Amino acid sequence: MDFEKQYFIFTSLENILLTIALSLIIIMTVFGNLLVMVALCKDRHLRKKKTNYFIVSLAFADLLVALVVMPFAAIELTTGVWKYGEIFCLVRTSLDVLLTTASILHLCCIALDRYYAICCQPLVYRHKMTPLRVAVMLGGCWLIPTFISFLPIMQSWNAIGIEDIVKRRISPGGSNETSCVFLVNRPYALICSTVAFYVPLALMVLAYQRIYVTAMSHVRQIETLQRAGALFPEPAPVANSRMRVETKAAKTLAIIMGCFCLCWAPFFITNVVDPFIHYSVPWQLWTAWLWLGYINSGLNPFLYAFLNRAFRRAFLVILCCGDERFVRQRSFSYGPTHRVCSPTSVNGTSMPQECGVKWE
Q: Which domain holds residue 175?
């Protein structure tokens, strides 16, 4: 097997199109995540909800991915050469692993927060999600990734046993041109992938599965009462509004999980498989899976903030230069809305145990 990296030569037109596409991805990721952070800083109502601290910390991690990681990856991809030296290559790679893992761990914490808010009683949620526990969870999202990024990568633990392969990949064909290569041995691949993806994925699936079941159970209860012609404690428009919100919330959860798996599963499956098939995965496939994962950092603001009515209102205020008259006009144009104040409405999602912001 020839382990040397064969660079694909882009034509001038292809290089221009690739540069434009990568630049748009970076700009949209920066804009979306920066907007989320500014919204939380300017809107005191957003700062009152614990879930939003996870969202803004997630936005900060994704913003750093776009500012620190993506540009260097784009430059290397379009030029085919790494020009910044071996040490900075290790630093860039460590930041890549740290920030993308932190982003994924934030998604896991958001899922757990919503599980406690939706599937538990209000007092249980307040007991579980205290400000101290939120701070500990946020600290863990940033601390845990350092144990699979800077610590092993700067010590080259990920390359133990595969040093010769790494050297051949860094300078293919013995040329003077170098590339920033990140190959991992089997132990590192298994440990890193488990911590960064498979454990968070399992927790997210369990949390969102319970949330989905709870939401659909409430929808069926409402439909049953309506078909039976039972005396409903609330006006019909409110009941119909609740059913629409809960149905949409369930669909939103499916979209969130679908996007997360679509963006990151190909990379982490390949990351585990590649060391066991003698590092024969083509670099073009690696690059495609890696950028698909980066795109998740651009999608997160839309999935976790833009679907939230309170965030949308804050975005309109920011984009309209603080003119709330336009925001009020937009709000009235939606028609009358109802606050769902039942045991099925949720903190930042669509169903808290207390009156709150609905996702719709």
A: 12-201+263-324
Kindly report, residue by residue over 48-99, the tens digit of the pLDDT. 888 889 999 999 999 999 999 999 999 999 988 898 999 999 999 999 999 9
* Single pTM value for the model: 0.83
- Whether residue 115 lies inside any domain: the answer is yes
Alpha-carbon span 77 to 15, nearest angstrom: 9
What CATH number did the domain enclosing 174 receive? 1.20.1070.10
Euclidean distance between CA atoms 163 and 220, whole angstroms: 59
Number of domains in the chain: 1
- If we measure between CA atoms, which residue out of 237, 256, 259, 260 comes closest to residue 248? 256
Query: For the chain, how many residues are written?
Result: 360
Count Cα atoms within 13 angstroms, Cβ side, for 278: 4
Distance CA 292, CA 352 (A): 33
**What would the pLDDT profile of 266-309 be if each residue is shown by its tens digit?**
999 999 999 999 999 998 999 999 999 999 999 999 888 777 88
